[in-house]
Design brief:
The complex is a heterodimer of chains A (75) and B (375). Chain A is of the alpha+beta class. Chain A has a single domain, classed as Translation Initiation Factor IF3. Helix content of chain A is 31%, strand content 35%. Chain A contains two helices and four strands, in the order E-H-E-H-E-E. With 375 residues, chain B is α/β, with parallel strands linked by helices. Chain B has two domains: 101 residues, Rhodanese-like domain (Oxidized Rhodanese, domain 1), CATH 3.40.250.10; 264 residues, 4-Layer Sandwich (Metallo-beta-lactamase, Chain A). Helix content of chain B is 27%, strand content 25%. In chain B, the strands form four sheets. Chain B has a seven-stranded mixed sheet. In chain B, helix 5 packs across helix 6 and helix 7 crosses helix 9. Chain B is globular. The chains are: A alpha+beta (75), B alpha/beta (375). The interface between A and B is medium-sized, with 14 and 16 residues.
Chain lengths: 75, 375
C-alpha cells in the first residue's frame, strides 16, 4: 500500500479528527491513500462511517499501543 | 444568536416535566438507534456531525423555530461545533454539556414517600441509563439500596439531610452498571450487604444479605426486610420497607420482568424467576408499592418522575405476570432475548472487585441502555 499523506490526529478530541481528515482528503487525488493516526476512541466508529458517507474506502484499520491507524483510499 | 449550554440536570427537568424539546442528535446512526435521550414530548433529528462539515444549510428547514432545540453528541465537542454553525445561521440553540456521557451519569433524586416520624424514602432516577437507587432516611440514619457508582451524590445527599449512612445494600450482583455500594460503605463505615449466592466470586468482604434479614433505620425503627427472590440472578433479594414499599431489584419492573441470562444461566434460573413472580410475590399484600431497580422506557415514569406502581396493579397489567402456561413463560424469558447490556461481563467483574478500571473506562463500560428486562 502506497501512502500519499499522513495525518497526525493524536490527542485531538471529536470532532477534530474528522475535520482534519476531511481537509487532508481534499489535498490528495482520487485513488490515493491517506494514513490517519488518532487516539480518540470515537474515531473507531466515526471515521469508517464518515468514509462510507463520502464513498471512500478504508483499506486497513488497526490499533497498536492505544494508537488508532486508518488507511483511507479517496473515492 | 447565542449558543446556550445546558446541563444534564436541565434536560432531566424537561423529561420529568413533560416539556417539548427538539433534539438534533449528531452521533452516528447506530449510536442514536441504540440509545438516545427519551422524553414524552421530544422530537428528534439524527444527522451525524461529519455530514455537516460543509454547513448546516441543508438541515435548516428541518429544524423548528417555534420550540427549543438541543444539539447532542457523544461527549460534547461535535455538538458545540454544530450548535455554533446553527447559531451563525441565525438560530438560537443549546448543546448538552458533556454529551451523552454526562447524560448517562446524571441522577435526579425524587422523594417517593414520607415515612412515619419524619422519615423519607427517595428514589434516585438515572434517566440516561434507567437505573434506580434508593435511600431510606429516618431520624438521623440512612440506608441505601442499589447505589450506582457516583458515590458523592449519595454521601452529599446524606450530609445535606444530616443523616448517617448505616446500611448499604445491593439487591444482586449487577451486570448493567457498576455498583457504588461497597465504596460508600468503605467511606462512611456503613455495613455493606450482598446476597451470598451472588457473591461466590467476589474478592472483598461483605455482610451476607439473607432471606428474612431485618434492619431498623432510626429510633422510630423503619423496617427494612429482606425477601429472597431469585431469578434474575440466583441471589436476587427484594426488600419490604415499612410494610408499604416493595423494592424488587431487577426481578420485577413496571412494564416488564427481569431476564435470567445475564450471568449465563437462563435455563437454570427460569424456574426460580417463575417461582418468585408467580408464588412468592403473590403471597404479598397487593397494596405494596413496587419500586424497581430499573425502568426501560420513559412511559414507565409517573407524572412526578418517579417509577412506582401498586403491586396489585402490576398483577393485572404487567404482561410478564400474566403468562399462565409455564412453557410459554420459559420460552418468553429464554428465547429472543434483547441484546445484552454493553460490557456486561466486564461490569460483573468490576462489581466482584476483580478488575478496577479508571473512571473513563467505567464510563465507557456503562454507555448505552440497561437492558435488564424481558417484555
Amino acid at each position: 500500500m502506497k501512502i500519499t499523506k499522513t495525518l497526525d490526529a493524536k490527542g485531538l478530541a471529536c470532532p477534530m479528527p474528522i475535520v482534519k481528515t476531511k481537509k487532508a482528503m481534499d489535498t490528495i487525488n482520487s485513488g490515493e491513500v491517506l494514513e490517519v493516526v488518532a487516539t480518540d476512541k470515537g474515531a473507531l466508529s466515526d471515521i469508517p462511517a464518515w468514509a462510507k458517507s463520502g464513498g471512500h474506502t478504508i483499506l486497513e484499520q488497526k490499533t497498536e499501543d492505544d494508537l488508532l491507524y486508518f488507511y483511507i483510499q479517496k473515492a | 444568536m447565542t449558543v446556550n449550554k445546558w446541563t444534564a440536570a436541565t434536560v432531566a427537568r424537561k423529561v420529568i416535566d413533560n416539556e417539548e424539546l427538539f433534539i438534533l442528535d449528531v452521533r452516528n446512526a447506530d449510536a442514536f438507534e441504540d440509545w438516545k435521550i427519551d422524553g414524552h414530548k421530544f422530537e428528534y433529528l439524527n444527522i451525524p456531525y461529519f455530514e455537516l462539515l460543509d454547513g448546516v444549510e441543508e438541515i435548516l428547514p428541518k429544524i423548528p423555530t417555534d420550540k427549543e432545540v438541543l444539539v447532542v453528541c457523544a461527549k460534547e465537542g461535535s455538538s458545540v461545533m454544530v450548535a455554533e454553525m446553527l447559531s451563525e445561521a441565525g438560530r438560537e440553540v443549546a448543546y448538552l454539556e458533556g454529551g451523552m456521557k454526562s447524560w448517562s451519569s446524571y441522577l435526579e433524586p425524587i422523594k417517593v414517600a414520607d415515612l412515619p416520624n419524619g422519615g423519607e424514602l427517595y428514589q434516585f432516577v438515572r434517566l440516561g441509563k434507567g437505573c434506580l437507587s434508593y435511600m431510606v432516611i429516618s431520624e438521623g440514619e440512612a440506608a441505601i439500596i442499589d447505589a450506582v457508582r457516583f458515590t458523592d451524590i449519595f454521601t452529599n445527599f446524606a450530609k445535606d439531610k444530616g443523616v448517617e449512612i448505616k446500611h448499604v445494600f445491593d439487591t444482586h450482583l449487577h451486570a448493567d452498571h457498576i455498583s457504588g455500594g461497597r465504596h460508600i460503605a468503605a467511606e462512611t463505615g456503613a455495613t455493606y450487604y450482598l446476597p451470598p449466592k451472588d457473591a461466590t466470586e467476589v474478592v472483598f468482604d461483605y455482610t451476607p444479605l439473607n432471606d428474612g434479614l431485618n434492619v431498623k433505620i432510626g429510633s422510630s425503627q423503619i423496617d427494612v426486610n429482606a425477601l429472597y427472590s431469585p431469578g434474575h440472578t440466583i441471589g436476587s433479594t427484594s426488600f419490604v420497607i415499612d410494610n408499604q414499599y416493595l423494592l424488587t431489584g431487577d426481578i420485577l419492573f413496571i412494564d416488564s420482568i427481569g431476564r435470567p441470562d445475564l450471568a449465563g444461566l437462563a435455563e437454570d434460573w427460569v424456574g426460580d424467576l417463575r417461582e418468585t413472580l408467580y408464588t412468592r410475590y403473590r403471597e404479598l399484600a397487593e397494596d405494596l408499592v413496587v419500586l424497581p431497580a430499573h425502568f426501560m422506557i420513559i412511559d414507565e415514569l409517573n407524572e412526578d418522575g418517579t417509577v412506582a406502581k401498586r403491586l396489585g396493579d402490576l398483577f393485572k397489567e404487567n404482561h410478564g405476570l400474566n403468562i399462565e402456561d409455564e412453557d410459554e413463560f420459559r420460552s418468553t424469558v429464554t428465547d429472543n432475548l434483547p441484546p445484552q447490556p454493553n460490557a456486561y461481563e466486564q461490569i460483573r467483574q468490576v462489581n466482584m472487585g476483580k478488575i478496577t478500571p479508571d473512571n473513563d473506562e467505567q464510563t465507557e463500560m456503562e454507555i448505552g441502555p440497561n437492558r435488564c428486562a424481558v417484555r
